[in-house]
Amino acid sequence: MTRKRRKLTNPLALAVMTTLWQKPMHPYEIAQTLRSQGKDASTKTNYGSLYTVVQNLEKHGFVEVTGVERQGNRPERTVYGLTEAGREEMTEWLSDLLAIPAKEYPIFETALSLMPTLPPDEVVRLLEMRLSSLEVQVAGGRGALEKLYETLPRLFLVEVEYQLHMVEAQVEWISGFLEEIKKGSLPGVEEWRRFHETGELPAEFTS
Hints:
Helix content: 55-70%
Radius of gyration: 24 Å
Strand content: 5-15%
Strand order of the largest sheet: 1-2
Structural class: mainly alpha
Number of strands: 2
Number of helices: 9
Distance between the termini: 38 Å
């Protein structure tokens, strides 16, 4: 199964389509719904650009104007609904994201790849700082999730569960990695330390 090249690639566009799948809305209501349903915690949401996202969806025929709302003295608000083409795009796009693993580039992964630039002891100090922050995040996240379970079906909290699980996995990995550096059992750690002490790059690092 191969990933289809899509006319729109901004995940916010998919979030907007799934929101309009619920019912037609004007952009401000879309923003409120995304916020109230907690989707801004799992999708990078720039509310200032949401109108542009809606316009792009309309340009590609995925949403259409279904009416205009006016309340009191407020300006008119254009209401958008999902088209049939939009429903198909939403379904295919979401199915691809669930079924096909995609290479992502988390910034922490980038930092790890460049980590030997810093001395081992400094890396230990920095990772211990990160670990401490993550452990607080896990404790708070676990408590918040238990509270959410009291009012929402688990179906609507799976992305929060996943986020928490990923943080817990990072805590476990960092803890083990720190232990290896401290004990000196990490392959290459002595050469790494010697380089920062002498400035001489080991031959095996350049081959």
